[in-house]
Design brief:
The protein has 3 helices and 8 strands, in the order E-H-E-E-E-H-E-H-E-E-E. With 130 residues, it is an alpha+beta fold. The structure holds cobalt (II) ion.
C-alpha cells in the first residue's frame, strides 16, 4: 500500500492552483469533473503520491457540506490497494463502518470506496484501485 493522494477541499480550484501550481511549483495538473461525486477535481503529482483539489459543482455535493461546516482543508486521505473488493471484504469482516459497501468509479477511472471516519480515528479514508 501507499498514500495515493491527499484530498483537499476548496471553494475554487483556479484560486487554489495559484498556490499549488504557480507559487509552490507542482506540475502536470490534471483537471476533470467527477459527476457521481458532484466535484471538479485537480490532481497534482507530488513524488509517488498526489494532491487532489476538490471543488463542489453543486450545493448538495459532499464537498459543499464540508466547506460550509469547516471551511477548506484536508478532506480525506486515499490509500492505494491492490484489490479493492478484497480490502472491503476484510474491513467488513473486521466490523469497520463503510460509507461504500461496493466500489464506485472515481477520478481517472479508478475504483474507489470510502471508509467512515468513525472507524478511522476521525479521518475520512478513501481506498483506491487503479
Ligand atoms: Co480522493
Amino acid at each position: 500500500m501507499k498514500i495515493d493522494h491527499l484530498g483537499i477541499a476548496t471553494g475554487g480550484i483556479d484560486e487554489a492552483l495559484a498556490f499549488w501550481e504557480d507559487a509552490l511549483g507542482l506540475e502536470k495538473v490534471h483537471v476533470e469533473e467527477v459527476e457521481d461525486q458532484k466535484v471538479r477535481v485537480a490532481m497534482l503529482p507530488i513524488g509517488e503520491s498526489r494532491i487532489e483539489l476538490l471543488e463542489p459543482t453543486s450545493d448538495d455535493s459532499p464537498i459543499s457540506n464540508f466547506l460550509s461546516k469547516r471551511g477548506g482543508g484536508i478532506h480525506h486521505i486515499a490509500v492505494k490497494v491492490e484489490n479493492i473488493t478484497e480490502s472491503l471484504e476484510r474491513l467488513k469482516e473486521a466490523g469497520v463502518r463503510l460509507i461504500d459497501e461496493e466500489p464506485r468509479t472515481g477520478a481517472e477511472g479508478c475504483l474507489v470506496a470510502f471508509v467512515h471516519p468513525k472507524s478511522a480515528n476521525g479521518v475520512l479514508l478513501e481506498l483506491v484501485q487503479d
